[in-house]
Amino acid sequence: MKKVWILCLAGILMLAAACGTAATGGGEPAGGGTAPAAEQVLRFGLDVEPETLDPRHSRDVSALRVHELCADGLIQLNEKLEAKPSLAESWENPDELTWIFYLRQGVKFHDGSDLTAEDVKYTYDTIRDPDFGAVYAANYSSIQEVIALDEYTVQFTLSEPYSPILSNNMELSIVPAEADSIPDFANKPIGTGPFKMVEWVKNEKITLEANPDYWEGAPALQRVEFYTIPSNDTRVSALESGDVDFVHTPLTPQDVSRIKGDSRFQVDEMTGLGITFAAFNHASPVLADKQTRVGLSHFLDKEIMASELSQGLELPGQSVLVPNTWFYSDVPGFPFDPEKGKSLLAEAGWTDTDGDGLLDRDGQKLTVRISTYTQDDLKMQYVEYMQNLFSQGGIDAQVVTNEWPTFIADVQSGDYDIAVFGMLNLFDPDKYMYNYLRSTAGSNWGGFSSKEFDALVEEARTVSDEAQRRDLYARAAAINNEEVMHNVLVYQGYVAMYSSKIQGYVPHARGSIRSFKNVSISE
Amino acid sequence: MKRYLFHRLLQIIPVVFGITVLVFFIMRLIPGDPALVLLGTDATPEDLARMRETLGLDQSLWTQFAAYARNALTLDFGNSIFQKDAVTAILLKSFPATLELSVCAMIISLLIAVPLGIAAAVKQNTWIDFAGMAFAQLGTSMPVFWIGVLLIMLFSVQLGWLPSFGRGEPLWHGLWLFITTGSAQTLIASLQKLILPAFSLGVMGAALISRMIRSTMLEVLDSDYIRTARSKGTPERKVIMKHAFRNALLPVVTTVGLQFGALLGNAIVTETVFAWPGIGRVIVTAISQRDFPLVQGGVILIALAFALINLCVDLLYAVINPKIRH
Which of B30, B153, B163 sits opposite A30 (nearest CB)? Predict the structure, then answer.
């Protein structure tokens, strides 16, 4: 009897293997197969599973991608990071503390209800409410009050002038005013976007279908399916085998090189809106003096990091101002010059007095801990390379790697010398420079202190003129470089790889897929 | 028997309690603050303090543990800090996927290991023995994730035979549809998705179990009663399967039981490689976020499963060897 069962099971397993291409990833044609001709379905490979799909609570990039298709904000930033109308047709700020948005009329939520000013007010009131517990509530702290002036006009009153308000606050997805009484809203949200939520099978699949009543016209795609595939290797294999149609950053450089040579796929590479930096701890005894920090900075070969370690996916960093943005300025950093680095360290008193090959001062070795987190392979490579460069200069460099929670807890408590990590979505310099580098900023864990820097970034958030802001940030970025607060190693790249059958996709430096509303799949 | 079973079930209580205490305190002793992970690096110290208060992390460890243990007694393991859903609901959804994967991996292990181990023992020092043990050596040496990547490259990317990731409908559901409606489509789709992760997970177990079968079979085949059976003219096939294999089975069952526990552990890697929506992936993510309630619930569930599997193994001894009676 047992034998019969074993034989049956073996038979079923072999049958499955032999049946080959009959079934697939998520019900679609598998390995090497294609979607049925008539179906306009795009299958997207995500790297992490969203935690929640309530846009007021969500904080991960995967959830943001879903929101971009399911919902709209008052404005949207285009590829050049310019604010363009979305649910708000137009806006004005009659004085520096007042912003008035005029809503598009006739826009409907997926449940058929009309979008009104009350929905906008509700969305912003809840996300700012401490009892609601939104993780990004603090980002909206400059908003004092939201008033629905009439059915289609909303006024935001600020507590202080805040010029980055459009890019930092006004893309928030608007939810219906009754959102919190809708059952299971966090798993099946309702928005006004070009696609409607159908189903979220946790850790497996998120299915969206076209919204035929979308205010900009029905999308050509019938469905968009998101699959969470944590392994970078498997995600790219799924693209190659035809199980998904679209993957994007994070990707490994080797995979990108391989796919670039395959005519079945399109690869878009561009400088993203992220930076990877080495945060120097000014409170660390060995890094307290500026000369030592500058000396160490001359050992960093950013060209090799970008061209060899990232294989060209990233660009050598220079300052905290990201290229290809309205706020970019050419702020020089410290060039790779180990000899100069050595002489600067010598001037700072670091010499090899005992002949052991390591620099020392007052009997203390120049020991520098370089820390990062294990979830990012490229940062691990950067750190190892830095250790190598420092060691060649007689610096006792020690690598400390931990998983993210441990790493960031150490950084937060000041237990580091040089910490390598990064910042994403820098579509306005304010959030990063104001929150991380200002003397009294909550996230200034490295004890940076420059009154001049503080004055510049504080002024920049009150000035509305773009050119003037760019100038202020350029001066602030120069101080950051001179003082070696955050030494930017590389500008992160953004890569999207997708089936050549996808037509109409417009790549976006921050990875936005809003253009899916105009995408179709060719035969 | 009933009394034995009752005692064994009672013994699980202190095991689970011990695991609860360990995982609760270990999670809180390792560095990392869920409030900081949740709020991100932008968070101000005030935001962090408020979030810690909301999560109850500002209380003393003992107060937190007492509250946790009290709720756990009513099977309330709290809510995930990051996913917001109830831990019980998350685990009940993901555990069957892991169980399905592990059971199928074990079946594949046995399908490979039993004939291989027996053949290697019976044909000792022949090419069959050498080839079988070379496979066993290879199987134990290859990391699970590496086998997984190779299988995907071959069967999904190059040959296009099988899907590269994900899970279909639950296997039992496919089987049920096959039995009730005669339609094998769902079952085949599920098996197609299952076969690569189950094989990559099962191959290491196959290697270990085949080595174990080979060595115990060699020992048994050398016994006097086997010689007696042969001298009585018993057919060789019967000697091997009935006399030798049955007696060699006891240590093998122990290995299989332990291996099943290892499978649950290795499933964590396999689930990540194949995007299999099981409990391993849930726990790995939860650990990297310091999602205390979810890690605690997941570890307790796996410990419970491990204890129950060991109980089943002990009960199986009696079935295999009538000399053992509980």
Answer: B163
Calculated CA dihedral for residues A153, A155, A156, A157, nearest 10 degrees: 180
Distance CA A22, CA A27 (A): 10
Put simply, the answer to whether A241 touches B160 (Cβ < 8 Å) is yes
CA distance A190 to A176: 7
Is A21 a domain residue?
no
Q: What is the largest CA-CA distance in chain B?
A: 86
Alpha carbons A256 and A237: distance in angstroms, whole number: 12
In this structure, are residues A431 and A164 in contact, taking their beta carbons and an 8 Å threshold? Answer: yes
Nearest CA in chain B to A437: B42
Indicate if A222 and A177 belong to the same structural domain.
no
pLDDT in tens, A472-489: 999 999 999 999 999 999
* Residue B86 with chain A: CB contacts under 8 Å: none
Q: Which two tokens stand for residue A404?
A: 């993210």
Q: Do B167 and A204 touch (CB under 8 A)?
A: yes
> Is there a contact between B195 and A17 if contact means CB atoms under 8 Å apart?
yes
How far is Cα B307 from Cα B16, in angstroms, rounded to an integer?
Answer: 9
Distance from the Cα of B156 to chain A's closest Cα (Å) equals 5
Same structural domain, A387 and A454: yes
- For residue A212 the two structure tokens come to 């035929």
At A417-476, the pLDDT tens digits run: 999 999 988 989 998 899 899 998 888 889 899 999 999 999 999 998 999 999 999 999
Q: Domain count for chain A, please give it.
A: 3
Burial class (CB in 10 A: 0-12, 13-18, 19+), B293: buried
A109 and A206 belong to one structural domain: no
Residue A253 CB neighbour total at 10 angstroms: 18
Contacts of B41 in chain A (CB under 8 A): 408, 436, 443
Determine the residue type at A512: S
CB A411 within 8 A of CB A362: no
Does the distance separating the beta carbons of B47 and A241 come in below 8 Å? no
A·B CB contacts under 8 A: 197
In DSSP notation, B84-125 reads: -SBHHHHHHHHHHHHHHHHHHHHHHHHHHHHHHHHHHHHTTT
Cα–Cα distance measured from residue A93 to residue A84, given in angstroms and rounded to the nearest whole number:
15
Does B111 sit within 8 Å of A10, measured CB to CB?
A: yes
User: In this structure, what DSSP letter does residue A278 have?
Assistant: E
Find, in chain B, the residue whose alpha carbon is nearest to that of A407: B32
Sign of CA dihedral A324, A328, A331, A337: negative
Phi, psi of B306 (to 5 degrees): -65, -45
B161, B165, B282: residue with CB nearest A25 = B165
- Chain centre distance of CA A356: 44
Any residues with CB less than 8 A from the CB of A100 and at least 6 apart, and which? A91, A92, A93, A94, A149, A153, A154, A155, A156
Q: What pLDDT digit, counting tens, does each position of A119-163 carry?
A: 999 999 999 998 888 888 888 989 999 999 999 999 999 999 999
* Same domain assignment for residues A364 and A466: yes
Model's pTM, two decimal places? 0.86
Q: Which of B149, B161, B289 sits opposite A31 (nearest CB)?
A: B161
Q: How far apart are CA B294 and CA B91, in angstroms?
A: 8
Domain-located, residue A487: yes
DSSP string, B248-317: HHHHHHHHHHHHHHHHHHHHHHHHHHTT--SHHHHHHHHHHHT-HHHHHHHHHHHHHHHHHHHHHHHHHH
Provide the residue range defining the domain that includes A135. 72-181
CB-closest option in A23, A240, A243 to B189: A23
- Whether the CB of A12 is below 8 Å from some CB of chain B: the reply is yes
Taking contacts as CB-CB distances below 8 angstroms, the residues of chain B near A136 are 40, 42
The enclosing domain of A93 has a CATH number of 3.90.76.10
Within this chain, do residues A446 and A344 fall inside the same structural domain, yes or no? Answer: yes
